[in-house]
Structures are given as C-alpha cells and as structure tokens.
Amino acid sequence: MEQMPKAVEEEVVTISKFKATCLAFLGNVKDTGKSILVNRRGEPVALITSPPKPNEPGSWLGMFQSEGKIAGDVISPVVNKNQWEVLTK
Prior knowledge:
Elements: E1 10-14, H1 15-20, H2 22-32, E2 35-40, E3 43-48, H3 85-88
Parallel strand pairs: 1-2
Antiparallel strand pairs: 2-3
C-alpha cells in the first residue's frame, strides 16, 4: 500500500490581496513557515515559501588539521649545543 506524501500547509490568496498586504504575508511566512499560493483569476502565479535555514559555520578550531606536514625532527634543537652563546659562558 503506497503512502501519500504529506500535504504542505499553504494559504491561497488572490494576487490583489497579496499586493495590498505583501509585507504582512511575507512576515507570516517567515514566522509560521507556511507557504502562500498566489492566484490570478484562479490560476497559480507564485508560491511564496520561506528560504532554507543557513548552515551554521563550524568551529575554527582544527580547521587546518589536515593541511600541515611535519618535515624532519621537531623535538631536537635546530642548532648544535656548541653554538649556543649561553652555554659557552
């Protein structure tokens, strides 16, 4: 047995009513998430829906974890101990 897709809740208005109260309708779409179908002489002209939610930016921590490479020995000193001025005094 096939299931029918859920009907999207939408309000149907005439184009003249939408034109007169456009900002109120847009605010209603934003607040409720319901779509508005605008008709002209009984035929659909436009479907007003809310935009998709923006993606949340990820954390910047660890952003470049796969970008760097360790080349060589990172533990031992860069120069020889004999070249340090502090140790020669």
